[in-house]
Write a structure and sequence with these properties.
heterodimer; A: 611 residues; alpha/beta; Rossmann fold; 5 domains; six-stranded mixed beta sheet; 14% strand; globular; B: 237 residues; alpha+beta; Ubiquitin-like (UB roll); Alpha-Beta Plaits; three-stranded antiparallel beta sheet; 6 helices; 21% helix
């Protein structure tokens, strides 16, 4: 057995050149093959690649799709976020649990099936959803859960769970997913008719500086959420010296409630790859990497085929055809379940085979990025915009949207609305209009921009979607009347606490405290002073955290405290007898009781001697 | 690189070398910026965030941010002092810190920082995590209850000792220091003379058999608050 392990790990390491910067691929392959990356496998990986043993452990412990202890042959990962919970996650989880006879986080006694919960998998428009190994299953019900378990028990083949294919390229033989695009509104730019190869031939007829000028003239800003001007980023990378430069397509959309990149990668991969190629030409890079989130692994064979086709069509490879031919190729780097890797410097760490801790800045990736070379990291949607700009010209692009926010934005709408899905709207569209399109007008609250964005109330539905007002990477979660505000805030805080890399104090500890404080308030044990304390803590996290995750992790609390203050005020109160409501005597003496083996004489006494 | 640049720290002109961090420039000028994870001789890390200042109005960690000409830095303001108090309180509440029983008392940078910042008690709910102690090594002990994840041992082991014994595993609140992956200290190749053993600011990595050797009154922070050595560098007017 250990012979098999050794030879297999050796073969896997060799297939990735024994390169310690390819530890992500090595660990993923070992995980796929053995259902875990066991300590013995980590010893081997360390020995073969020369990566320090503790770094291998560090990597495996960081990503939620990697595990040092054995998992079942099939792993069912239930998407557990607020949207899925609203659509019956708990019922479905119970059905899976009962049918399998195991709890969440457990594996059946025969070692065949594991049941887990995971953060948003990019299917909020068809929730509740799950991944069975790499296969997405959508719109789950309790009946469907039982069917899935019965099916797996019979054949253990997740692919056979796909009973019907979704629309568009979801039906492509290399995808064959039951996922639906739910493309509700096609706009004039991103989803416009494409002329394959035109953007690249236009770009290659210009000088790199002219290409950058075109992107600047279109006033294109990053679509991932931060909104940094794309042309400026490119200019920095072009000006930076480095023998090897890189272009990275960020397809790690992990913000709960966003799924636009899923649809772009399914329907417009050529536009994404063309955008990367143009960026490569503009900054002088020969190498591109598409960082694909682990949750979208089901798209990988299809995307590889698209890349191969582009190579044979002369749109990629040693000589990209055009007036100024140049060399450029793209490889796909898989992620393994870590939201923070969507942050560009954490993404670079991950690409280099390490845990996804964001980097200190400066230096910025455009100066010193992947393997130390100047690197441009652009969101998938940004790259599609680049292609459109080079296809139709910056003026055509900039005529859409508003002055400060040109073009259109893809919105991923989910939650309490009749038409969840993708909407391409011009920047400047009021939120109310989005709600009208998605038929979710009776919402009492909308989370714009995912958990790191803001929770807005009805009075603010007139605000517009753009960088100056309601900025969003695309996630729009609709909450109808009757939804529990504290449950929403709690779910978002849980998400951040789970996904914090733990590097810096304010984010690592702050998320844990906010979560406890909100739990206390929801349980009716909050005091008025708690609200001010949460606000102070949130502001400190915003100011002192090291990266965007920590700086925005308190937003669910900070924005709901402003926009839904009465909800909190009704839940917190002073104790009339002056007791600290947060103090739970029974809980406080529990451990001492266990140690001493007897009940405390104070046990069961709550406030003023009442049992 | 060109000649020195001038920055302003709380209104005081400080001369700095291009590329130097704000914290290093302040140290040389005898201005103390509170910090826990930073240690001269180790690569700047920027994890504790206690050294947060504002540079041209924007908050940043002074240990990792390079100076720029004319940079205006705020350090000793009430807002920043309060932010630092909160961060230090967070460190106390997320771990298990019992100063009264801890042999590092009086020599502990976390404790000294709390005194310097005027923290009577943490305002955050205690988490009381269950964390591992490893006392398998004959000379060294690691008590993760007291670890503040500053990464000094990680950096010293990697960059000074050339061993890479320590590293971080897990993420979020579950993040912890691991020894060679999953080894015990005894089997790790760590040695009592390693720099990694000396750099711990708290009572997480300890030398066995040295507890309470220095009597109360003569410990590192008994006579002077933390940072006094840096402030002593200030040129007397």
């Amino acid at each position: 057995m250990s012979e098999t392990l050794e030879s297999t790990v050796r073969r896997i390491c060799r297939s990735h050149g024994g390169d310690p910067t390819r530890l992500m691929d090595i660990a993923r392959d070992v995980q796929d093959r053995f259902g875990c990356v066991a300590p013995a496998a980590m010893d081997l990986i360390s020995r073969i690649t020369g990566a320090p043993r503790v770094e291998v452990e560090s990597l495996v412990s960081f990503y939620s799709f990697l595990s040092r202890s054995p998992k079942g042959q099939v792993v069912i990962r239930l998407c557990d976020d607020i949207i899925d919970r609203m659509h019956g996650y708990h019922r479905v989880a119970r059905a899976f649990s009962e049918e399998l006879g195991i709890g969440l986080g457990e594996t059946t006694a025969d070692g065949k099936i594991s049941l887990e919960r995971t953060a948003c998998i990019g299917l909020s428009d068809q929730a509740p959803a799950a991944l069975v190994n790499e296969v997405p299953v959508t719109e789950l019900s309790t009946d469907r859960a039982r069917e899935i378990v019965a099916g797996l028990r019979e054949h253990m083949d997740p692919r056979r769970l796909v009973t019907r294919s979704g629309d568009g390229q979801n039906a492509h033989p290399l995808v064959r997913a039951m996922v639906r695009n739910n493309l509700r509104q096609v706009g004039p730019l991103v989803f416009s008719e494409q002329v394959r190869g035109k953007a690249i031939s236009n770009a290659l007829a210009m000088s790199p500086a002219e290409v950058i000028r075109a992107v600047k003239n279109a006033r294109l800003r990053g679509r991932g959420g931060a909104g940094f001007p794309a042309g400026m980023k490119w200019e920095y990378a072009r000006a930076s010296t480095g023998e090897r430069k890189f272009v990275i397509g960020n397809a790690d959309e992990g913000e709960p409630g966003t799924f636009k990149d899923r649809v772009l990668l399914t329907e417009l991969p050529d536009r994404v790859f063309a955008g990367m190629t143009i960026a490569g030409y503009a900054i002088g890079a020969k190498e591109g990497i598409l960082y694909l989130r682990g949750e979208y692994a089901y798209l990988r064979p299809y995307l590889e085929a698209v890349l191969a086709q582009r190579r044979s069509d002369g749109l990629l490879g040693p000589k990209v055809a055009g007036k100024n031919p140049f060399a450029f190729d793209i490889r796909i780097q898989m992620g393994a379940g870590a939201y923070v890797c969507g942050e560009e410097s954490a993404l670079l760490e991950s690409c280099e085979g390490r845990r996804g801790d964001p980097r200190n800045r400066p230096p910025f990736p455009a100066q010193k990025g992947y393997l130390g070379g100047p690197t441009v990291v652009n969101n998938v949607e940004t790259l599609c915009c680049v292609t459109k700009i080079l296809e139709a010209g910056p003026a055509e692009f900039a005529q859409h949207g508003s002055t400060g926010s040109t073009g259109t934005k893809l919105l991923s709408v989910s939650g309490d609305c009749r038409l969840p899905g993708i909407y391409e709207v011009p920047f400047g569209t009021p939120l109310a209009e989005v709600l009208r399109l998605a038929q979710g007008e009776d919402a009492f609250a909308v989370q714009v921009g995912g958990p790191s964005g803001q929770l807005v109330s009805r009075t603010e539905f007139t605000r517009t979607i753009d960088y100056e007002n309601l900025a969003t990477g695309g996630s729009i979660m609709v909450f109808g009347p009757g939804r529990n505000l504290l449950e929403i805030v709690h779910a978002f805080l849980e998400f951040f606490a789970d996904e914090s890399c733990g590097y810096c104090t304010p984010c690592r500890a702050g998320t844990a405290f906010l979560l406890r404080m909100v739990e206390r308030i929801a349980a009716g044990r909050g005091e008025p002073a708690d609200l001010a304390r949460m606000e102070e803590l949130g502001l400190t996290m915003k100011a002192a955290s090291r990266c965007g995750l920590g700086q925005t992790a308190a937003n669910p609390v900070l924005t709901s405290l402003v926009n839904f203050r009465p909800v909190y005020d009704a839940l917190v109160k002073e104790d009339p007898e002056g007791f600290r409501r947060s103090f739970e005597l029974d809980k406080a003496v529990m451990e001492a009781e266990l140690l001493s083996g007897r009940r405390s004489k104070h046990a069961g006494i709550e406030k003023g001697g009442h049992r | 690189m060109s000649g020195p640049v001038t920055i302003l720290i709380d209104g005081v002109e400080v001369s700095a070398r291009p590329g130097q961090t704000i914290l290093d420039a302040a140290d040389e000028a005898g201005i103390y910026i509170p910090r826990l994870c930073h240690l001269p001789g180790l690569a700047p890390f920027g994890s504790c965030r206690v050294c947060t200042v504002t540079a041209n109005g924007r908050p940043c960690a002074s240990c990792t941010t390079p100076v720029t000409p004319g940079m205006i830095v705020e350090n000793d303001t009430e807002r920043l002092r309060e932010m630092r108090r909160q961060i230090v309180e967070m460190l106390f509440s997320e771990g298990n810190h019992f100063c009264m029983f801890c042999e590092k008392s009086g020599n502990c940078e976390l404790q000294a920082m709390a005194y310097r910042l005027g923290i009577p008690a943490s305002r955050y709910p205690g988490i009381w995590p269950v964390r591992d102690v490893d006392s398998t090594h004959p000379d060294i002990l690691i008590d993760r209850n007291r670890c503040i994840l500053c990464g000094r041992c990680v950096r010293a082991s990697r960059d000074v000792d050339g061993k890479q014994v320590f590293g971080f595993v897990g993420r979020g609140h579950g993040k912890r220091i691991a020894v060679l992956g999953d080894a015990r200290l005894r089997d790790s190749g760590v040695d009592v003379t390693d720099a990694a053993i000396d750099v711990c600011p708290v009572g997480a990595i300890l030398r066995k058999g040295t507890a309470f050797r220095v009597p109360i009154g003569q410990r590192r922070f008994d006579k002077e608050p933390i940072g006094a050595d840096i402030e002593a560098r200030k040129e007397k007017p």
